Amino acid sequence: MKNESIVYLNGEYVPKSEAMVPVEDRGFLFGDAVYEATPAYGGEPFLLDRHLARLSRGLAALRIDYDVGEMPEIHRGLLAENGLDDAPFAFVYVQVTRGVAPRGHAFPREPVPPTVFGFANPAVRPPRNRWEEGYAAVTVPDRRWGRVDVKVTSLVANVLAQQAAADAGVEDAILVRDGMALEGTHNNFFAVFDGAVTTSPASNYILYGITRSFVLERAAALGIPVDERAIPVEELREADEAFFAGTTTEIRPTVQVDGRPVGTGRVGPVTRRLYDDFVAVTSGGGTVAAA
Ligand SMILES: Cc1ncc(COP(=O)(O)O)c(C=O)c1O
């Protein structure tokens, strides 16, 4: 990796310290923007089509006029510019804002070009012995808006929930709305009941992650039962296992929730099997082998 990272801004690759966005950018003023974060294994963006399909859906939901057609090239360009084209694990972040205009809530009357920004960073998979110890989570009320299926950059409710986890000295927050354990602040939440991998159904109340869909597919391929249903927070006491999944999280086992052990309080066999499979699939640059 070179000393100063190279970012992408509106068609150019520039050193991070030279990338400037005007103060009237609506991403800055309103969080009027969508983003994507895609993992790359061995320099190969993983499931990029799915990430870009989600980005397109988000742009359409916000009515931002931007074609994601140039995105694969930007992803590869960012990895190459930063010497990450053969890194074992990295991620690429891209963000598209509505653009720059004098402040006013409604869209600018005259359309302005969107601001397109991106960066690539190395990512770290925890050492296996750390992973095997498991991680802890706390439940936190979900104070987000009603369209969290759109990956918008306005993330202050997620920030506060993650800080509540940090204040509690744990790694993850389980967001709870109407008594249901929905997802994490930047990852999806899963519990295992009687061997079935259970997670909230896709709706406007979760950001249904690409990793989530991949984990569900791999579970099915491995013959592990899958159950997409809302999980009442009290039911977590009966869970045999729990874990989070997401782009930088990968699959992170949760052995304690709100100070109580999950199941035996140790990483369980279903989580371990899914993780072993995930590691095997992604260590080859992310090419999915037949199960
Ligand atoms: C709220 C939330 N849920 C879930 C996810 C996981 O999505 P993915 O697996 O596509 O990274 C994210 C990713 O940033 C997220 O922000």
Percentage of residues in strands: 25-35%
The total of helices stands at 7
Helix content: 25-40%
CATH class category name of the largest domain: Alpha Beta
Helix/strand class: alpha+beta
Report the CATH topology name of the largest domain.
D-amino Acid Aminotransferase, Chain A, domain 2
CATH superfamily of the largest domain: D-amino Acid Aminotransferase, subunit A, domain 2
Mean pLDDT: 96
3D shape: globular
**What low-confidence regions span 5 or more consecutive residues with pLDDT below 50?**
none
Q: What is the domain tally?
A: 2
Query: How is the biggest beta sheet arranged?
Result: 10 strands, mixed
Bound molecules: pyridoxal-5'-phosphate
Q: What is the N-to-C order of secondary-structure elements (H for helix, E for strand)?
A: EEHEEHHEEHEHEEEEHEEEEEH
Radius of gyration using CA atoms only: 19 Å
| Spatial gap, N to C terminus | 34 Å
Q: How many distinct beta strands?
A: 16
Instruction: Based on the coordinates given, report the CATH architecture of the largest domain.
Output: Alpha-Beta Barrel
Architecture overview:
It contains 7 helices and 16 strands. The chain is α+β, with helices and mostly antiparallel strands and about 290 residues long. It has 2 domains: about 5-120, Aminotransferase class 4, branched-chain amino acid transferase, N-terminal domain (D-amino Acid Aminotransferase, Chain A, domain 1); about 130-285, D-amino Acid Aminotransferase, subunit A, domain 2 (D-amino Acid Aminotransferase, Chain A, domain 2), CATH 3.20.10. The strands form 2 sheets. Strands 7, 8, 9, 10, 11, 12, 13, 14, 15 and 16 form a 10-stranded mixed beta sheet that branches. The protein has a 6-stranded antiparallel beta sheet with strand order 2-1-6-5-3-4. The protein is globular, with a radius of gyration of 19 Å. The model has no long low-confidence stretch (mean pLDDT about 95). Pyridoxal-5'-phosphate binds next to α6.
